[in-house]
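Pipeline run #58 for the internal structure catalog. This entry was flagged by the ingest filter as a single-chain record with no existing model, so it goes straight to prediction. Upstream metadata was stripped on purpose; only the residue string is passed forward. Reviewer on rotation: M.T. Logging verbosity set to normal.
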Amino acid sequence: MTAMRGIVALLSACLLAGGLGVPESAAQPRKIQVAIPVAALSFGPVYLARDKGFFAAEGLDAQLTVVESGPVATQALAGGQMDVIVTGASDVLVSHAKGVPLIAVQTVTRQTMEIVARRGFVEERRLTPETPLAQRLAALKGARFGITKPGALTDTVARWLLKKAGYDPIRDAEIVAVGGAGSQMAGLRQNKVDLIIISPPIGPQVEHEGYGVVLIPPTDIPEFNEFVLNTTLIRREVAERQPELAAKMVRALGRGINVMLDQPEESRRALALHFPKIHPAVFGVSLERIRKRLVRDGRMVEAEWRNLMALSLEAELLKRPLDTKEGGFWTNRFIR
């Protein structure tokens, strides 16, 4: 018996030495670094892709990090600290304009960002969410906008809204970098800012706690109805040299998107663990708002990019137009 065990051990050692002992499917999962710029429900598909094992099913061990702003996430991706990020689509345009070799491979959500106002601000200016949009925009003069970071999508939208209202973003308002979701909520609560631009569940939660109101939902702004918001972004070298890895990441995130679309109750239970301070009733409302802005599998269309580029030009985020045809800074090639 001892001799037989020795023979088996010897044969196993020989097979391993020849690379035949461990099937590829049993190999250790590949670690990848994933980043999002803020902890918001609009990034729900990313949480679900990790928590539901969709990355693992592709042989990937995804480590998720919240990095507080889109520009920070983009820099980390370009520098190789991250393998994939889901971030504001304006970061894609800015990177492309600067010649940074990144490419968008999926859209996660269309525009979900709400303009959330401090209650004192709306009371002083006699505004409600039902006030005609032109009047709500006119009331932005002199407002203090809380954004994540200069150059982030929150900054772009704030500047664009002010210009849409006929104001100069520098002379007629104050744009203050305050950081992530928690800091933005604190800014409203402590009267340090008047308005924040953020996706649910923050707006509904602020309303629930009584110190703010969703003054302008994205559905009130025609330009936002076909407008890419959050996209999956990778380095171009990965798309070209490691297409299988790119496809795996896109498939995992696509399954996260589709679960939110097809299984709202299961998604609510899973995602609620990441937002324990959000009231259950608020969470349900917020999830429905996000679900209406999801795109199955994350497939993109050029019109969304044209609208985003127009906004970015008006906000002076871009100095000149970019070619929005597929194959430049975005592609659907990894979506099956």
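catalog note: The CA atoms of residues 160 and 311 lie 6 Å apart.
catalog note: The first strand starts at residue 30 and ends at 36.
status: ready for reviewer M.T.
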